[in-house]
Amino acid sequence: MTTMAATPRRLHWRSPAKVNLCLRVVGRRDDGYHLLDSVFVPIDLCDDITVTIDGVAPGAARSITVRCDRDDVPADGANLVARAAGAVLAECGLGATLRFDIIKRIPPGTGLGGGSGNAATVLHGLIDALALDVDPARLAELAVRLGADVPFFLSGRPARVRGIGERVEPLAGLDALALVVAIPPVAVSTAWAFRTFAASGAIPANGDEAARLAAGAVPSAELLVNDLERVVLPAFPAVAELKSALRRAGATAAVMSGSGSAVAGLAESRAGAERLAAAVRAALPGVQAYAVGTGRPAATVDGPAGAA
User: Fold this and answer.
1) Angle at the Cα of 256 (from 203 to 188), degrees rounded to 5?
2) What is the pLDDT of residues 169-205, one digit of tens each?
3) Mind listing the domains of the chain with CATH numbers?
4) Which amino acids are annotated catalytic?
């Protein structure tokens, strides 16, 4: 167990987004959860999380507060940051006063996993900051309880993800891609996307795209596929138009990430990705477009509570 200094600590964490290079819906469990076969890559579009940690002690009272710069992100116990922090403290029998401030650059409802990434960052960050001994298998259990994408973010590496998100196989060879992430001014509910997909009866024959990418195939238009596009693109024309705009601008492939609404475009270089992002922003006012790389940034900067 850890011993905390009397002075409150302030930590700054960068919490990355992800892109699904491919996503196949391969089945459905009896409890309604869909089974996936997907390839995820972390990208260097990040939220910033600052936490002040005080009063850590076994059996002490717990106080967890969250503030965010977006009104559409919950600032109470429903926030995945608060839930992740509470899970760590409960697992280790600790109380503490934790005050989180989140600056969101990853909008919700975009399929980029911002909330899940925040949760994984807090799980890792608090365990490291408090020098806690949590078995990796137990940490994985806590992660999947928080959300299907959280186990992936614990790995911090490109991975093939299967099951409901709990089966994470880290991959080599996908950590130097040049991508454009384009975000339209619409949000898509993950629950709606999967519910509508199930109601459509559109579960296809299983594709092998994830297996081929895992085996080292070069990402291409043939391999960047997403089954959820079947229901999202007709219902959200802005997402369909964004995918077409990326291809017109010169992306070698384009695919919706997760359940949408963001679309990722593949470029041949970072400079090419910058040009693609500028072309999409010019063609579609109101769309955010960023050139990103596939890699996880340095996560933590430590300082006293009064530091800037």
Assistant:
1) 85
2) 999 889 889 999 999 999 999 999 999 999 998 766 5
3) 9-171 (3.30.230.10), 178-293 (3.30.70.890)
4) 18, 149
